[in-house]
Amino acid sequence: MDFEKIKPWIYKLNPEFAHTLTETVLKSYKYCPLFLEWLKKDTFITDLSLEQHLWGLKFPNPVGVAGGFDKNGTMVESFPLLGFGWGEVGAITPKPQFGNPKPRVWRFPEWEAVQNSFGFNNQGLERISNRLKKSYPFKVPIGANIGKNKTTPPHQAIIDYKILVKGLEEVVDFFVVNISSPNTPGLRTLLNPQFVEKLIGELSQLTSRPILLKLSPDMEFNTVEQVVAEAIRGGVKGIVLTNTTTDYSVMPTPIKRGGISGRPLQQKSFQMLKFVATFLKREELLKQIPLISVGGIDSPEEGYRRIIHGASLLQLYTPLIFKGPKIVAQINRGIIERLERDKFKTIGEAVGANL
User: Looking at the predicted structure, is the pLDDT value of residue 27 above 70?
Assistant: First the structure.
């Protein structure tokens, strides 16, 4: 199906309703797996040059689906159908929560951007963990994006994260600690070095699963360096760069709430990746603490640029809305071509080559 032909019709729908329709289709995977496995041949790109082993997990290709796409773990089995070599579910909170009032998501096609103020709407730990248990282990690595409930005061946030790690440890492959969403009041105040070391340290003692930390693109670089250093001290195994931005100067938006994702975030996300990768390389830790780049990765060129500037893995979500599901395969094929062009046998050889 030509996505460009149906895109105008999709854009007539409310963005949140359109996503619900997508979820309904992808949830049907389990009912017609043979047909959908046949479709996967054109979307799921594998090649020895793309394959990586990180944290004891095999990643068949580097492109993963970002947190927020599958909030409740209902579509996780269909990730490979879209071409993804891994992904996240969530953000998951201990208790179910509705999130912020609607409307809470807006498309800006002229900017290839989305702005959202969802606020961790999800069905809660118990229901999601029970759902994931039926599918685990997955065909590709799957992590849980975890966040605190809105009603949990910041000084008790660590309790929520501990509950989530304990409750999800047996049904996911890794954790992404989300204290960088702009849509939960007070959450970003936790992005300080002292709290991060304590949080990552205590979570690392609870589980053998890798603990990753997701950062905001709106942080000052000197703070970022301190936070990353303390996260490493606490035992973090990877860094995700970055969440959405509340820098409303990146595009002329009339809405002054929520976070912006997509093309306008591209340069901020890239600069944050480059800064953290340079810091880790200087400390000889780039290979030990893999980086995941997310934000405005909408082409093979951009995906490869992130790899040679320090990213081991990539994530996307918003480009699916503007370019369709084929973008995942296009990025993976483009990375293979560029690895061959630059005489790299594997992605691992290319990571950070241009730093």
Answer: yes
Catalytic residue positions? 181
Q: Which residues pair with 240 in a beta bridge?
A: 214, 292
Tens digit of pLDDT for each residue in 293-303?
Answer: 999 999 999 99
Is residue 355 domain-resident? no
pTM passes above 0.85: yes
Q: 39 versus 314: which is more confidently predicted?
A: 314
Instruction: Write a three-state SS string for 48-113.
Output: CCCCEEECCEEECCCEEECCCCCCCCCCHHHHHHHCCCEEEEEEECCCCECCCCCCCEEEEHHHCE
What CATH number did the domain enclosing 111 receive? Answer: 3.20.20.70
Structural domain that includes position 329? 3-350
Element at 328 (helix H, strand E)? helix 326-341
Residue 237 falls inside a structural domain: yes
Q: In this predicted model, what pLDDT tens digit does every residue of 256-273 receive, in sequence order?
A: 999 999 999 999 999 999
